[in-house]
Design a protein that fits this description.
Blueprint lengths: L1 H12 L13 H27 L4 E4 L15 H28 L1 H25 L3 H40 L3 H31 L3 E4 L2 E4 L3 E6 L3 E3 L2 E3 L6 E6 L2 E4 L11 H36 L5 H12 L4 H32 L9 H38 L3 H51 L7 H38 L2 H6 L1 H14 L26 E2 L2 E2 L4 E5 L21 E2 L5 E2 L2 E6 L2 E6 L4
Parallel strand pairs: 1-4
Antiparallel strand pairs: 2-3, 4-7, 5-6, 7-8, 9-10, 11-15, 12-13, 14-15
Helix pairs in contact: 2-6, 2-7, 2-9, 3-5, 3-11, 3-12, 4-5, 4-11, 5-11, 5-12, 5-14, 6-7, 7-8, 7-9, 7-10, 7-12, 9-10, 10-11, 10-12, 11-12
Length: 618
């Protein structure tokens, strides 16, 4: 009996609890984020609208004869907009098709993506050699050689990566509405950028001067006009010359006030510029990570509970949970990235200002101190770029733990450190191979949409060399590329979640998706034959929507993982045992809150009587 007790204690320490009660984490960061969001919206509608509709100086483009250029609308704009709509729709369809192809032929797609990297570098190197660029060609050929060696080294892992990718694709395809929510969030991102621009313009305009002075006379900016020109021309007695793409001229009340710049130049202090940039990066990161966390939460439910009856309801529940209970950790992790990016941007602006000052002709531009300062700035920018990339990569997995186990960001970070310590190199290799697959998908869909756009341009009568055709073809590639990126980012989130769940508790996949589990475990054993699989370590409580909730008992003051106990009266002739011993017998059943019976049931005795034990382990 003691052996059975030990076995059960080992089982319960390695399984999971399905918790339905949401716990709000890192609330202070949620409040701080909402405060800055309200501030930006307030600035947009108070200062921004006022600045946009105010009597700022007009801007007029003029030709080489000094005449205003025509502002007639392009008669082909309707056709161009129709073409853009077509390539956006086709980009979405091609992206979904690529997900299906990847789910069907994942291993071949991974090999194709690696091969394409090698071939592109080989052909690029040969091309550079042919054009006389020896160093450039040699660099690409060396990179091709490195890619080939990398391919040979990781080929034993390709099948596992492909199986992992296939499971992620299957999970997303079982609840495709997550892609629609990602598109909605993209629309919110665009709206946010518009509001941020209005707020930034309003702040910059509010700090700018409102008058101009020349020869002792002061002009109100509302009486001034900025002229843009590309060709040399005469304006009365003044000869104007332009050596750039566009030159500017400021005239107030018929007098030339500035001959080399616009009348109006919005300005903002460095402190406010930093705050505005921080708000931009922070909110953009939060919106992006909301999609990532919502995807991770939905995929985790799919992993631990199987395919839901209503996939759209599950996705909607995951989205609402992310923007409420999990908003704090999302804001916390996103703030770290935003601070790094804002610091990079501010340092970049400062470096550019130093470069302009150095190029002004001063002898200081070649002094050792100046060169040392430039070198230090470049090193710091490079270090910040690397830190930005590393933190984003770290957060990608931290948010998976946040969504799966309802952890705060600090707790999730500790879980990621543990994961990387145990399986760090495998994680890096998997993600490298996955990135190749995603990049290949972006390029394939982009090229297909570009061809669709070219065909549309020919169908509506645009010549092959016309500017309209170029606009459509370029827009087609960009639209296809980003539509596929939007879709495959969801796949990336799902695949990372699958990897975390497999590392923490693969048995749940065996329970609910045995065919996928068999493929995944077979590929894992192919290159890790001696490695032991975890059955869960009680890290947290995987989330389950209320309509799928399973009751959770407390054992020794703690929730017991993935199990439910129902007290039953002692059968005739049975006696209470002094220890919590398990007598494994009888059929096994598993009861959801809505009543269906699935799986099997263990019966045993505890100090309180006979109980039924529900488990996800087969």
């Amino acid at each position: 009996m003691k052996k059975i007790t030990s076995d059960i204690q080992d089982f319960t320490s390695r399984s999971f609890t399905f918790a339905s009660v949401l716990q709000y984490k890192d609330i202070a960061f949620s409040i701080l984020f909402l405060c800055q969001l309200i501030t930006i919206i307030g600035l947009a509608f108070s200062f921004g609208i006022t600045a946009l509709v105010s009597d700022n100086p007009d801007v007029v483009k003029i030709d080489e004869d000094g005449n205003k250029k025509s502002t007639d609308h392009d008669s082909d704009s309707g056709k161009i907009m129709g073409g853009i709509f077509l390539v956006v729709v086709m980009g979405g369809l091609f992206s979904i098709a690529w997900v299906h192809i990847t789910a069907t032929m994942a291993s071949k797609i991974v090999i194709l993506s690696l091969s394409s990297v090698i071939l592109v570098n080989v052909f690029g190197g040969v091309g550079l050699f042919a054009m006389g660029s020896i160093l450039g060609g040699l660099a690409l050929l060396l990179f091709a050689l490195f890619s080939f060696v990398f391919f040979l080294y990781v080929r034993s892992r390709i099948d596992f990566v492909a199986a992992n990718l296939k499971v992620g694709c299957k999970a997303v395809l079982s609840m495709p509405s997550i892609i629609l929510y990602a598109i909605v969030v993209l629309g919110v991102q665009i709206l946010w950028c518009v509001l941020w621009f209005m707020a930034a313009y309003g702040v910059a305009t509010n700090e700018s001067i409102t008058t101009l002075s020349k020869a002792g006379h002061t002009y109100d900016l509302s009486s001034c006009t900025t002229y843009k020109y590309q060709e040399d021309f005469n304006l009365g007695d003044v000869s104007l010359y332009c050596s750039h793409d566009w030159c500017s001229l400021c005239i107030c009340e018929g007098e030339v006030v500035k001959t080399s710049s616009s009348c109006f130049s919005p300005s903002v202090s460095y402190g406010k510029y930093f705050a505005l940039l921080l708000s931009l990066y922070w909110t953009s990161a939060v919106l992006s990570n909301i999609v990532h966390c919502a995807t991770a939460g939905a995929v985790a439910v799919w992993w631990f509970h199987g395919t839901p009856a209503s996939s759209s309801g599950l996705v909607r529940s995951s989205i609402l949970r992310t923007v409420t209970a999990l908003l704090g950790p999302v804001c916390f992790g996103s703030l770290v990235v935003a601070v790094i990016r804002t610091t990079r941007s501010m340092l970049h602006v400062w470096v550019k200002a130093l470069a302009v000052e150095s190029s002004s002709g001063s002898s200081r531009s070649t002094s050792p101190a100046t060169r040392l300062t430039k070198f230090c700035n470049d090193c710091l920018l490079t270090a910040l770029a690397a830190l930005d990339r590393a933190v984003q990569y770290f957060n990608h997995y931290a948010f998976c733990y946040v969504s799966i186990y309802d952890l705060g960001f600090v707790e999730a970070s500790g879980a990621v450190v543990s994961l990387f310590c145990k399986k760090g190199f495998t994680t890096l290799v998997n993600d490298n191979l996955l990135d190749n697959v995603l990049s290949l998908g972006h390029m394939v869909v982009g090229v297909l949409c570009m061809l669709i756009a070219y065909g549309y341009a020919a169908a509506v009568g645009f010549r092959g060399s016309s500017p309209n055709t170029f606009v459509l073809v370029a827009t087609g590639f960009v639209a296809g590329f980003f539509m596929c990126m939007l879709t495959l980012n969801v796949i990336s989130s799902a695949t990372a979640t699958v990897y975390v769940c497999f590392a923490e508790n693969p048995a749940s996949l065996q329970t609910h998706h045995p065919e996928l589990f068999d493929a995944l475990i077979t590929k894992w054993r192919k290159f890790y034959p001696e490695a032991e699989l975890s059955s869960g370590d009680g890290r947290g409580q995987p989330y389950v929507p209320p309509d799928m909730a399973i009751a959770t008992p407390a054992v020794d003051g703690k929730h017991n993982a993935a199990s439910t106990y129902h007290s039953l009266p002692l059968a005739a002739g049975e006696e209470e045992d002094d220890e919590e011993n398990i007598d494994l017998r009888g059929p096994l059943t598993r009861v959801h809150s809505d009543g269906p019976i699935v799986g099997e049931l263990n019966r045993g005795t505890t100090e309180s009587g006979l109980y039924d034990k529900h488990t996800t382990i087969v």
